[in-house]
Amino acid sequence: MNDALADGAADFVPRVLDVQGCAVHFSEGGKGEPLLVLHPAGGVAPWLPYHAALARHFRVIAPDHPGFGRTPEAKEVEGVDDVAFLYSGLLDLLEIERVAVLGISLGGWIAAELAVLERRRVDQLVLVNAIGLRVEGAPIADLFAMSPPQKAAALFHDQAVARAIFSGDFDIEMIMQFYRNEKAFAHLAWQPFCCNPKLRRRLPRITARTLVLLGAEDRVVPKAHGEVYANAIPNAQIELVPDAGHALLFEKMDAGVAAIERFLSA
Amino acid sequence: MHFNLFHLMPYPYLPADFDEKHSTASLTIPNGLFDPAKGQELYNRYLDELEFAEKLGFDAICVNEHHQSAYGIMPSPNIIAAALARRTSRIKLCVLGNAIALRDHPLRVAEEIAMIDNISGGRVISGMVRGIGFESFAQNISPTRSAARFREAHDLIVKAWTTREPFQWVSDNYEFRYANVWPRPVQQPHPPIWIPGTGSLETMQWVAERRYDYLSVYAPSRVIKIWFDMFRAAAAACGYTPPEEKIGLLLPIYVAQSDQRAHDEARPHLEWLFHRGLKITPELYFPPGYLSDGSFRGLLSSGMKPFHLLSYDELLDLGHAIVGSPTTVREKLKAMKAYLGFGNLCALLQFGDMPHSRAINNMELFASEVMPAFERSGASERQLQAAG
Predict the structure, then answer these.
(1) Tell me, what CATH number does B369's domain have?
(2) What is the distance between the alpha carbons of residues B155 and B164, in angstroms, rounded to a whole number?
(3) Which of A74, A110, B21, B357 has a C-alpha 20 to 30 A away from that of B203?
(4) Mutate which of B144, B284, B302 to test chain A, going by most A C-beta atoms within 10 A?
(5) What is the pTM of this model?
(6) Predicted confidence band at B337 (pLDDT cuts at 50, 70, 90)?
(7) Cβ contact, residue pair B301, A172, below 8 Å
(8) Which domains can be identified in chain A, with CATH numbers?
């Protein structure tokens, strides 16, 4: 296992709240303005190095989406819109009136849906290599059809890192956890594939200051998706992290976190 | 024993560099490799083979549904069954099965099966399947919804066959404000339902509760033994002992005059089936959610090798096929029947790139030299049932 996927410093508290009948598990750590961090479909862990880095300046709240990690599947969750409603409920329970939301890949899609749904509550939004849109002529790579090594090669710009990720042995429990996460991802994103076709025309409703952060070498989500997000969201800017692939916050964490902190502190 | 002839209708004309260039014969292998001129010859040749089974005294001919694959070129098995209905008069027509979980309109399956049942005078057996994992990609239906869709589609189809007035259907995956299938099936209350399974306990329990026929495909004998014992236990839990005729096995079989000749002739075709036709990557075979967590864990711990990595000898040793002289095949089949306790054999007598003449020889030898060594059961009973 690569160091980048190992847990960060354990300065967080695991919490669980019953939201609309779903036991939402989340990690909370750090002090400052609240920052809801929504994880991608892969690389799900309670507290990763980028969580720890962000927790230096923010109160990081990082839930596991239904069916991922520690949170069980929820019958009522059939799509990403349901997840957005779930997190709206989570913010209610946490009595958070203003929130910055950072979403990565799948998490970016959820964050965009949440920013449409909670247009006053979400005042800052960071989308990192977000899926969620259907862009003609720029399909998202079909990760479901790839073998683990193919997936790693697609996710990382640095192929040495990609190879290292899959160099170790995986025990059955670890494979089962991967399977569970993949299953939860398929449930949300198989069809329509990785998108809500209606999301694009709803993006102009977003009032949050928005940063669209892209890995310059993302091979999974074409750059056109980030450009559509940045053009359709009224108050958005776009920034590219050089030498970073789709797994931006794993392979270029320092540069990624610096860009996020710069934007959120401005 | 029931003897059925099963046909996959493979597309045998794969390019010479298939093994090196293609990771699978399904989903991503370009359809430019399909030659329509050969298609006409193939479909008609395969239909001839299926029709010939009636003359040889088989109980049923079985066809099945596969999409975007050289492994089998019957995306619509009901079209083939309809063609067979007009060219046969006695033999049962088994669609094994319709991949109902992949359909957005299960009522279409209810309608088509009822049509064929009418055309054939009540000779249809309706198999129902979820489709192979790669078909979740091919039909763009989430594998995480496949099990629920299967159960709902089945319930809807059976209700459509057995209800005599319009009804409303609303379930998680299907909504029909008017379900009112014309024609109704000839067989009452509905055509027999056969369900193939691959070790899922949930499926076995579901089949046992409904007293349907359970069938198994493509697994080592020692594994099938476990599955059939599980199915018998599931039936016992429902308060009955399934007769052997309700437990079925799909098996490639090849008979020739001598063992040596049988192996020489069968080997390339069996290797085609397992090494080319069934060649698929694990990601396409088991997309996420296609198997329950329990079944996926079972698969990980079973140590089963992908088909295309099994040698010819391994395939035979594990019981994936029976090849030999009439005596050998009789003995091996009897031993397998005694070991597994099944009474419904779906014999795959044309497989892979086996040419027509060999398929016909195989069928004739199997019918004349192997079938008579077994007590035939239930055929007349089934016909009476259909007539009644």
Answers:
(1) 3.20.20.30
(2) 15
(3) A74
(4) B144
(5) 0.94
(6) very high
(7) yes
(8) 3-265 (3.40.50.1820)
